[in-house]
Amino acid sequence: MFKHVIVRQPGKSYVNGLTTSNLGKPDYEKLLTQHKAYVEALKKCGVEVTELEADENYPDSTFVEDTAVLTEKFAVITNPGAESRNGEIIHMKEVIKDFYQAIESIHSPGTLDGGDVLQVENHFYIGLSDRTNEEGANQLKQILEKYGYGATIVPLKEFFHLKTGIAYLGNNDLVLAGEFVDSGLFQSFNRIVVEKEEEYAANCIRVNDYVIIPKGYENTKKKIVDAGYDVIELEMSEFQKQDGGLSCLSLRF
Questions:
Q1: In Å, how far from its chain's centre is CA 172?
Q2: Cβ atoms of residues 207 and 252 within 8 Å
Q3: Can you give the residue ranges of every domain in the chain?
Q4: Spatial distance between the Cα atoms of 202 and 154, rounded to a whole number of angstroms
Q5: Could you tell me what percentage of the chain is helix, strand and coil, using 3-state DSSP and rounding each to the nearest 5?
Q6: How far is 166 from 120, CA to CA, in rounded Å?
Q7: Which of 17, 66, 160, 176 has its CA 20 to 30 A from that of 81?
Q8: Which architecture does CATH list for 4-252?
Q9: CA angle at residue 199 from 211 to 2, to 5 degrees?
Q10: Given 35, 45, 204, 248, which residue is catalytic?
């Protein structure tokens, strides 16, 4: 059960942030409406939400997931792979001190984005991507093993981040898409396979009694409901334009 969630309001500079999509420039007012709905959905899930003010110096800073990896025992401050985002971790470390005594860090030349880290019970999968390099992944693996967790490093071929295409719901249920569907790493799970045209919906989040999913992906929604979960659907268009998904917008612990 999650008790706490950290989010950050998107600033006006968000519309000039990093993106690889060709979906157009975000509508800032619509973005704020979607972010507010996201926060309300989290509260419905029964968590206490810490909402940080926007930071105009960092256009992508609403994607707080990339700044830290949070476990039951300790926190890890990451070292984001995009140079323009690296300063985000300075303030986040101060915020996390209010919740954790044991805080570890990823150090250069290692880079690590939290979006490349998936926890499955006591095991972690760490994606190697354009933002997370081998040195950063190995640093995290060593930290996790020091605290008794297992870790597997997963080289990515297609997805921007590991969690772009995979989500763990609990109960051995795994939502997965694209390159992960045929991967031997995940054959032992109850697999909820997301079709190619609905790949964006693979980035969903289980928060206590609900699974939060992006709106508009009916086949994926049906599969998750059929697996026994209550869902909350949210409009995510303005975040999708900047390569962002549901998991990116919060730190859940």
A1: 19
A2: yes
A3: 4-252
A4: 17
A5: 35, 25, 40
A6: 11
A7: 176
A8: 5-stranded Propeller (3.75)
A9: 25
A10: 248
Look at the block and give the residue holding tokens 């570890």: 104
* φ and ψ of 152, to 5 deg: -130, 130
Of the candidates 35, 45, 161, 204, the residue annotated as catalytic is 161
Nearest CA to 131 out of 248, 239, 23 is that of: 248
Dump pLDDT digits (tens) for 195-241: 999 999 999 999 999 999 999 999 999 999 999 999 999 999 999 99
Query: 248 catalytic, yes or no?
Result: yes
Residue written as tokens 């950050």? 8
Instruction: Give the predicted TM-score (pTM) of the model.
Output: 0.96
Query: Is 161 considered catalytic here?
Result: yes
Two tokens at 156?
A: 């990515």
146-191 per-position pLDDT tens digit: 999 999 999 999 999 999 999 999 999 999 999 999 999 999 999 9
E-state strands within the chain? 4-8, 48-52, 68-70, 75-77, 103-105, 117-120, 123-128, 150-155, 166-170, 173-176, 190-193, 205-207, 210-214, 230-234, 251-252
DSSP labels, 139-195: HHHHHHHHTT-EEEEEE-SS-SSGGGSEEEEETTEEEE-GGGTT-GGGTTSEEEEPP
Specify the length of the chain in residues.
253
Contact 122, 148 (CB under 8 A): yes
d(CA 175, CA 198): 12
Amino acid at 223: K
Round to whole Å and give the CA distance between 184 and 102.
34
Question: Residue 173's closest CA among 134, 140, 206?
Answer: 206
